[in-house]
Design goal:
6-stranded antiparallel beta sheet, about 45% helix, about 270 residues, 12 helices, Signal recognition particle alu RNA binding heterodimer, srp9/1, single chain, alpha+beta, transferase, elongated
């Protein structure tokens, strides 16, 4: 299906005309987010032990594993009078699961209306009216559970028992080999064709999208493409995109995650 996969980088550059005018089919923000996420998941993850990407862990550290052992998490939204109203138990669990998985956006259908929840900005956006509301994560005390420790635990055992939740399982994941890396190494020309075809599209989606979650996901996927691309492939890609001027505008952004991505792309 990929006829150009059998061609070299220079041959691909000659065959494919340079066309910077890309028309993106109109889609909802959620559809764009899912498409960009799918493209990103087809690429190997960025190495977390690489110093250049260790800052990404700090960007996510503030939200992970905040659930207290003696409390239940319930999400709320703010009404027109400034009062916090709780989501239903099912919706709250859905939001909390996305929060713990470091998702940036999720979509909920409440009373027949579509809502997009931005978990970075903590906002609920009505996709029909574009009305935004503040959302908040609240840990409610669990009064049903006993506050005293079980009698089977001695004082020494209690002192050695960790009171905080376990750390994220990133260390164990980093030790395992990403199968996508092996596939990439075995199919270099197919990867080159993949990047040649989709890099301009991701670049256009980033420039035409207003939602921060889509922009962040585009940048993460672009970073994966750049990191695993060869020098010849990068040269062929960058000839078609004026990415230097775009990096300059990214560095002036008020969103620190966009600034970090700009520095990583520059490096």
């Amino acid at each position: 299906t990929y006829k150009s996969a059998a061609l070299s980088i220079n041959e691909i550059a000659k065959v494919q005309p340079i066309n910077n005018n890309i028309d993106i089919v109109a889609r909802t923000p959620q559809e764009l987010y899912e498409i960009v996420s799918l493209i990103g998941e087809m690429l190997p993850k960025l190495p977390s032990n690489e110093p250049l990407f260790q800052v990404d862990q700090l960007c996510r550290a503030g939200r992970a594993y905040e659930r207290g052992p003696n409390g239940n998490v319930l999400w709320h939204w703010q009404d027109d009078e400034g009062q916090l109203r709780p989501y239903s138990s099912q919706d709250s669990r859905t939001i909390e699961h996305a929060w713990q998985q470091h998702e940036e956006e999720i979509q909920l259908v409440i009373s027949g209306r579509n809502y997009l929840l931005d978990l970075q900005q903590l906002q609920q956006v009505n996709e029909e009216t574009s009305q935004a509301r503040f959302i908040k994560r609240i840990t409610a005390p669990n009064t049903a559970e006993p506050t005293t420790p079980p009698g089977s635990l001695s004082t020494d055992e209690l002192s050695t028992t960790p009171s905080s939740p376990p750390p994220p399982p990133t260390a164990a994941m980093n030790n395992s080999v990403d199968a996508r890396t092996e596939i990439l190494n075995d199919n270099v020309e197919l990867f080159n064709s993949f990047v040649q075809s989709l890099f301009p599209i991701l670049y256009e989606v980033y420039n035409t999208s207003a939602g921060p979650a889509i922009k962040h996901r585009c940048l993460q996927t672009i970073l994966r493409m750049i990191y695993y691309s060869s020098t010849d492939l990068l040269e062929a890609i960058l000839k078609q995109q004026s990415i230097s001027s775009n990096i300059a505008s990214m560095l002036a952004s008020c969103d620190y995650r966009i600034v970090i991505s700009a520095l990583q792309i520059s490096e």
